[in-house]
Amino acid sequence: MKKLSILILALAVIVISSCHRHHRHVTIVTRSNNYNMKLEYEGTMAFNNEGTKVEAISKDGFIDYKRNSDEIYAAPDAVGHIHYELNGTPVNQLDNMGQNMLNEAIRMIIKRSR
To answer: Which domain holds residue 81?
Structure first.
């Protein structure tokens, strides 16, 4: 019985640690004279083939991209639909600036994951 308890505990530790490894948190910061950029993201993500749309983000995952004074934030709701905020305001559809920022963030995420 004691060996079985140790085995179950060991398996639980392996499962928990393997899940944690795949849910990583990344921050990229660039600063120069008149340019400030910060991309922060967490979780597992799926994008369309063109790299212009977030298809899915894992539970508790997000993308937070700031470029100078502009910001786009994307995260899933309880059922997995992706919701966006532009400069702190929830939006149903991204405007050109928001879509361009999302495209930049996706390109950096894809580049970083290779």
So the answer is: 23-113
